[in-house]
């Protein structure tokens, strides 16, 4: 017992859908649960479904003025309010007021932010910290509950890459990406995978709040390394596509010398790194505007402490 980490009960949980208005699984699930929340009710947890970007949802667009999932910077959140601000910055301030303030003791305990990807990533849980053992134990529980269906864990903790996500308002932020699914489309298999993951997550929180101690474990994660852009010509236009040998191969090793891009005349551009990396978000439709063809990751295994409910 002495080696376990004590965490406060996670009494207030929010489920965000529609952070991006054209990612339909989260939009649909939040709509279902707003009408009838029996499925997400637990006796020891108050769970609130919430539509983050209603204007973007109405237009079935990723965003109106700027990406809401990058808008939760200290500068934006501390800015005086006003109609002249971009819509998503105003919305970020509102969300921070309702579910935060970010970094404060009053912030919600857990936020699940539901996303879809056009990439062949399957079900992926996204964590922002390698030292949040509550979240690591939760994803370990979800991975076991989802088996034999795979559920990857992407760790976005990186000294140079900052995301300022919608979910970062919470004490324990968890992103969920499920794909492949085209933008503006609902696929039943993707919808059901997302639904099952949320169910298992809420079950874990209910058990934790009820006093269950979770023993030490190990969790395999893919830690973000760098963003890779498409090759471009002198005018900044894309001059090559993701190579067919890389397309749809999220989470598979990319070794030095492996094909990475294919130019429009059929030539191959190979990966020149020092060792293997594991690409993901390969050819994600939403990332063309961000000049990102994929993100490379390193695979590692984290030792996770036992956790129990704090008695303080």
Automatic annotation (TrEMBL):
Its cofactor is Zn(2+). GO terms for molecular function: aspartoacylase activity; hydrolase activity, acting on ester bonds; metal ion binding. It is an enzyme of class 3 (hydrolase). Keywords: Cytoplasm, Hydrolase, Metal-binding, Nucleus, Zinc. Pfam families: AstE_AspA_cat, AstE_AspA_hybrid. Signal peptide: none annotated. It is found in: Cytoplasm; Nucleus. N-acetyl-L-aspartate binds at residues 62, 177, 287. It comes from the Eukaryota. The active site is at 177 (proton donor/acceptor). Residues 10-205 form the Succinylglutamate desuccinylase/Aspartoacylase catalytic domain. GO terms for cellular component: cytosol; nucleus. CDD domains: M14_ASPA. Transmembrane segments: none annotated. Zn(2+) binds at residues 20, 23, 115. Substrate binds at residues 69-70, 163-167. Residues 218-297 form the AstE/AspA barrel-sandwich hybrid domain. Gene3D superfamilies: 2.20.25.160, Zn peptidases. Its main location: cytoplasm. Binds 1 zinc ion per subunit. Its EC number is 3.5.1.15. HAMAP family: Aspartoacylase. Belongs to the AspA/AstE family. Aspartoacylase subfamily. This is Aspartoacylase. It comes from Silurus meridionalis.
């Amino acid at each position: 017992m002495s080696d376990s980490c004590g965490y406060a009960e996670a009494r207030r949980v929010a489920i965000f859908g529609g952070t991006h208005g054209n990612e339909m699984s989260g939009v649909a699930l939040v709509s279902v649960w707003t009408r009838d929340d029996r499925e997400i009710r637990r006796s020891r947890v108050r769970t609130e479904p919430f539509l983050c970007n209603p204007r973007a949802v109405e237009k079935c667009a990723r965003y109106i003025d700027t990406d809401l999932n990058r808008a939760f910077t200290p500068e934006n959140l501390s800015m005086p309010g006003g109609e002249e601000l971009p819509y998503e910055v105003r919305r970020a301030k509102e969300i921070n007021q309702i579910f935060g303030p970010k970094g404060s003791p009053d912030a919600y305990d857990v936020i699940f932010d539901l996303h879809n990807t056009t990439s062949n990533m399957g079900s992926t849980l996204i964590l922002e910290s390698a030292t949040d053992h509550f979240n690591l134990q939760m994803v370990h529980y979800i991975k076991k509950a989802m088996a034999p269906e795979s559920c990857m864990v992407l760790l976005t903790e990186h000294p140079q890459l900052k995301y300022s996500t919608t979910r970062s308002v919470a004490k324990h932020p968890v992103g969920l990406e499920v794909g492949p699914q085209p933008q503006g489309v609902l696929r039943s298999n993707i919808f059901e995978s997302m639904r099952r993951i949320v169910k298992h997550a809420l079950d874990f929180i209910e058990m934790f709040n009820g006093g269950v101690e979770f023993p030490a474990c190990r969790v395999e994660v893919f830690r973000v390394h760098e963003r890779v852009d498409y090759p471009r010509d002198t005018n900044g236009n894309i001059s090559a596509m993701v190579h067919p040998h890389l397309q749809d191969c999220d989470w598979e090793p990319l070794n030095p010398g492996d094909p990475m891009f294919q130019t429009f005349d059929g030539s191959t551009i190979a990966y020149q790194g020092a060792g293997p990396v594991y690409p993901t978000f390969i050819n994600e439709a939403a990332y063309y505007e961000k000049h990102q063809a994929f993100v490379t990751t390193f695979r590692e295994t984290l030792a996770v402490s036992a956790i129990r409910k704090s008695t303080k």
